[in-house]
Amino acid sequence: MRKFKTESKKLLDLMINSIYTNKEIFLRELISNASDAVDKLNFKSLTDNDVDIDSADLAIRVSFDKDNRTLTISDNGIGMTAEELEKNLGTIAHSGSQEFKTENAESQGNDVDIIGQFGVGFYSAFMVASRVRVVSRAFGSDEANMWESDGLEGYTIEPAERATHGTDVILTIREDEGGEDGEGFDAYLSEWGLKNLIKQYSNYVRYPIQMMVTKHRQKPTPVDADENYQPEWEDYQELDTVNSMTPIWKKRASEVEQKDYNEFYKSTFHDFEDPARTISFHAEGTLEYDALLFIPGRAPFDLYSKDYEKGLSLYSSNVLIMEKCADLLPDYFNFVRGVVDSADVSLNISRETLQQNRQLRAIAKRVEKKISSDLEDMRDNDREAYEKFFENFGRGLKYGIYSSYGMKADELADLLLLYSAKEQKMVTLAEYAKAMPADQKAIYYASGDSRERLSKMPVVTGVLARGYDVLLLTADVDEFTFQAMHSYKAQGLPKVYEDDAAREAAEKAVADGAEPETEDRTLELKNVATGDLDLATEDEKKDAEEATKENESLFTAMKDALGDKVEKVAVSARLTDAPACITTEGPLSLEMERVLRRDPSAEAEGMPKSQRVLELNAKHPVFKKLVSANEAGDAEKIKLYAGLLYDQALLVEGILPEDPVAFAASVCELM
Ligand SMILES: Nc1ncnc2c1ncn2[C@@H]1O[C@H](COP(=O)(O)OP(=O)(O)OP(=O)(O)O)[C@@H](O)[C@H]1O
């Protein structure tokens, strides 16, 4: 017996016990070796006239013998001589494939897709096998040899028999340890287990991977069968190609029909609906790769659960490296499914991940750009589909802005759709800004749990009455997103001229045929129910100031009656028809307070409270009643009215009075 070199022994031990996290990948490694061997012979036949083979015959075969616990991976590739067996399999970390690649680097072109590079993959067989035999006959030689080892001390090489060129790798599979934590080795001796592994890791290997599979058929009806004959069925075995070979992402988009993409999507990503969009591209440069991405037509049920795993499948030379490579997708595009395939990425030795995150980052950046521009295209050219997309996945985009504290707003803000109270449909922020009257200075929004209710709220109707649109936000995350964004940079708005002379000059220029001037403007996002909207005209402001001055004692009395429910009571500059409304000062709006309160831990942690203001409409008859009660010194009435106005203003916002019984009693008392 020849002994493994000492270093090799250590390495072998490392291989078997630590390099791989997943034992099942041994099959991927052995099939990749077989594919390399076939590829090398194919390459030779293309470059050497003496090598006469029919490339249609090149194939890999997987078979098993349950009774003897053997699994065999055969190929009719280039094979190995005794010396090559010694060099390639006797020395760990010697890669004949890497050598082949280097030797043929110049003439190689696109005709080969050699997978091997480290010279270790073969030994992963010992993770599942107690003994490995390799029977090989080099192309052009009439001798065969067998390499054999138990993966511990050493190996033997002896003459053997093989009818034609190629290699059989015969594994004696370890005994199954059974039980829940057992190794499940028996799966490597079963048709479905092997088929699944081939499909999972080696589906796109360029050469057919054949296996005898069991099929079911109806037996022919006997000639003498009468009407009582019951059809009989039988199992039979047939050699089948298990892998689908050509990776669809390597084909040009123009060569593939959408229905084929749809089929691929559905079968690969287990969806029953067609994807909403298919994005395929080929990147060239320092890092060459193909990518095929899908935007699903519906949200998977677990998208917003913590079990949901984002990621794209990463392939290298048609072999699966990682099922879900999370680094390839930002969180807000976590719904995208697809594949990235690159022969250029530097794999780590177990071929389970990459050595360099820099490469992943470069791919991820490009992938993100492609997704964004595809979404923009859908938004601009197929609004109906985009609305559906946004319904499914918009929450993630909003959350992306919020969780990055607005840093991702530049990338994501234009992908948002929001409901316009004026247009009564979903609009983008750019569309909102474009439709604004020239004097509008901010983007207005209201936030609550139903569009219906919001559109009737006095703070909303007040702003609408001034001719300004209001966005009605109804999702939990909406207002948090808007606060994180703070503002939106609208591009190409009609220029606003501060002084008349400049405006007239510009108008004249346009009349003379010049293009109207445009400008970019940063618009603050303002909640119509918080702070000062600064919408009142000079006259309105003056009226409000006067009413405030004249009724100071009334406001003090009402504030005293309401206690710490409100920060203050004041004259409103935003109400038109309603007698009163609740607004807030500071960053926390009523709606945000309500969303935060839904978190059960909020109360215990000392929930921040919004600073509420009871605003009164000085033009409303109710106000006159308050004034006369105050003049009459009727403190009881002021208290009753203050409480009622406060509760009903909250009711309009969809917030129940803190003490509904007291509220009902007050209404009765008034009646
Ligand atoms: N079926 C085969 N036919 C011909 N040569 C083979 C076969 N399997 C392995 N070899 C040779 O043995 C060498 C070592 O194989 P091994 O799987 O350990 O490494 P590799 O494929 O070169 O690299 P990697 O570790 O990246 O898979 C290969 O480079 C190849 O030259």
Automatic annotation (TrEMBL):
Residues 1-351 are annotated as: A. One of its GO terms (cellular component) is cytoplasm. Pfam families: HATPase_c_3, HSP90. It is found in: Cytoplasm. It comes from the Bacteria. Residues 538-550 have a biased composition (Basic and acidic residues). ATP binds at residues 29, 33, 75, 80, 88, 95-96, 117-122, 167, 351. Signal peptide: none annotated. Keywords: ATP-binding, Chaperone, Cytoplasm, Nucleotide-binding, Stress response. CDD domains: HATPase_Hsp90-like. GO terms for molecular function: ATP binding; ATP hydrolysis activity; ATP-dependent protein folding chaperone; unfolded protein binding. Molecular chaperone. Has ATPase activity. NCBIfam families: PRK05218.1. Belongs to the heat shock protein 90 family. Homodimer. This is Chaperone protein HtpG. It comes from Collinsella acetigenes.
